[in-house]
Amino acid sequence: MSLNGKRILIAKPGLDGHDVGAKIIAMALRDVGAEIVYTGLRKAPEAIARVAVEEDMDAVGLSILTGSHKELAADTIRCLADLGADDLPVFVGGTIPADDVPGLKQAGVRDVFTAAMTIDDVVAAIDRAIGTPESGQ
User: What domains does the chain contain, in order, with CATH numbers?
Assistant: First the structure.
């Protein structure tokens, strides 16, 4: 598994003030070679999209624990599209009910990660989606 040279934005949209999970995922991705940009807490979808484009990211990971995942993911994807980055993969992690996963994917979310998944499973899924050629892509 190798995300060498891949640039991944980890963002905390909305009013959620808990970022331990986002930081753990960021460190796990860094440990397999990804370059991580972390936006910090309480960022608007517009700001997340702007940073993703300006920093030439390969993917965006949204960590959402507030229950507003459907709206925040859709708004972020819309903002990315407005900036011409509608092909940028967006991943969502957090407190996501299973019933909401199909709607998130229909809105354009590449994959959804919950607390029931292991860190290795999350990293492997991101690697499969955007990994470098030596990781089988």
Answer: 7-131 (3.40.50.280)
